[in-house]
Structures are given as C-alpha cells and as structure tokens.
# Entry
Amino acid sequence: MTIADDRELVIRDLRVAPAANPDLEILQGIDLTIRKGEVHAIMGPNGSGKTTLSYALMGHPAYVIKGGEVRWKGYDLLTLSADKRSRLGLFLAFQYPTAIPGLSVASFIRSALNAKLQGIDKNPDIDPTDATRGGVTMLEFRRKMREKMALLKMEDSFATRYVNEGFSGGEKKRLEMLQMAMLEPEFAILDETDSGLDIDALRIVAEGVNAQLNPNMGVLLITHYQRLLNYIQPDFVHVLAAGRIVTSGGKDLAIRLEEEGYGPILRENGLDTGIPDEALAVPLEPEAAAASR
Ligand SMILES: Nc1ncnc2c1ncn2[C@@H]1O[C@H](COP(=O)(O)OP(=O)(O)O)[C@@H](O)[C@H]1O
Ligand SMILES: [Mg+2]
# Structure
C-alpha cells in the first residue's frame, strides 16, 4: 500500500509495453517520487523508454500498462482517461508535436482551458464560457495569452495560425510551452523540449520554463543532453536504461554523462549495452535536423 500526500506524484513498479507489441516491456519497473516544487531530470540513451514513460503517465492509448501504479491526489492515474489526468493538473509537452490544420492556436488553448476549468467531475455549476459562473472572459483570456506569448517571445500572429501547421521545430516547442503557461499545470512532463532548438530558441524556451517554476508544480524534465540543464536547474537527475532507473544523483551526474557518454555509468550498474564511451555531442544544426524529420 502506497501512501502519497497531495504534494507528490508516486510511480511504483511501473511496467509498460507498446500496444502493438504487448509482450515487449519497455519499462520494466520504474520507481520515482516527484514532489511539487521539484525538478527531476530524466536522461537516457535513445530508445531507452523516455517517451514511453511520458506517454504512459499521460495515458496514451498506444501503450499498455503491464503493472504498477501512479498515485496523484489520491487517484491511481493509470485508471483514468488522458483528459481526466489533464483535469487533475498533469501536462505533457510532446517531443514531436502534431499539426492540427484548421484549428487555431487560440481556439485550441481556450477549449483546453475551459475544459480544465470544469474539473475532473465536470462540475455543471461551472460554465467556462460564462464569467459569472466561474468562467474566463474573452477579454481576460486574450490578456493572459498576450502576457504568456510575450514571455515566450512569440509574435501576436501566432495565436491565429493553425496548431503546428508549417511551424519550425523551435516554434513547435514554443507552442508547447505556451500551452503549459496557459494551463498552469501542477505536474509538467517535458519530453525533450530542447530537441530541435538552436541556442537562442533554447534560451527563450528555458526562460519560459523557469518563469513558470513554482512550489505548486512538479516537473519531469526529459532530455538526452546536459545542455538544457545549464538553463533549467534540476534538483535530481535520473538515468533511464534497460527499462529501469539505473542510478540517480544531482547536477554533477548530468555533467558526467555529458563528458563520458552513457557507456561508463551503465557498465558501473551492470549493464553492457555496447553504447560507446563518448562525450554527448549536441547536433550542430538541430533546427535543420528537426525540420527534416
Ligand atoms: N510497437 C513497437 N514494437 C517494438 N518496439 C517498440 C514499439 N514501439 C516502441 N518500441 C521501442 O521502445 C523503445 C523506447 O522508445 P522511446 O520511449 O521512444 O525511447 P526514447 O524516448 O528514450 O528515445 C525503443 O527501443 C523503440 O524501438
Ligand atoms: Mg523520446
């Protein structure tokens, strides 16, 4: 029996497989407790299951839960639909955001915000479109959008563009951060929010995240490179490999990973993965690489 207070998210023995290959456990027993106000970085080689973890926490239908539990605010999250998890304050910034042609950024975010305002039980007394019944006025929504867009150095015209349609890699990641800023989650999972960003975009996105850090939000910061942690200070760093958290530490662990690559740390923990002992080189032109995917 796990006892979790309402300030922490507790992952116990989480086992996850892709729905397309349900016998293949990608995550083979993840244990992690993240308290509000803490930033936990998860680092791991490509293919180690970082995205699988973020999707499993959020309830993506392409993954099946083979075992374990995730406690949050008295619920086992794993039994809830993705929208309920969001209503409970969870947020996921995608590694590869999807385009939604025909839906404007402003409509998308307003719909999400309104849905969230009704809470997990969709309180019928709250009408998100009616300011006198717990809703947000259009004026207030626009003011907040402008404020958050300025924080992320986004042009006003962004709000009327279609979600991710024709966006550059950097614009896609900035839109993820705008959604986070507007929805004000209590638990945010950021899946490689630094990938595909050049150094200026990285700085803007990191400043956007830092401006949002507060004692009422826990953060799971997934990253392959230490670089992001130069801008966002983690309280804990965990290494994910072979389906488990193989070791945990502080910022120094991330620096060591950057200098030595994943090989030595994995071997120390009894894993011989054939991963070379090389410094982690950030791709030279990530923006171009992301655009070509
Ligand atoms: N349908 C599937 N069948 C077999 N393997 C899969 C399937 N879907 C995902 N995987 C594997 O799961 C592993 C973890 O992927 P992912 O969570 O995206 O890793 P990361 O985000 O750490 O790069 C990868 O090795 C990938 O090939
Ligand atoms: Mg990934």
About this structure: The domain at 8-292 is CATH 3.40.50.300 (Rossmann fold). Residues 18, 20-21, 24, 26, 44, 46-52 surround adenosine-5'-diphosphate (ligand 1) (CB under 6 Å). The first helix runs from residue 50 to 58.
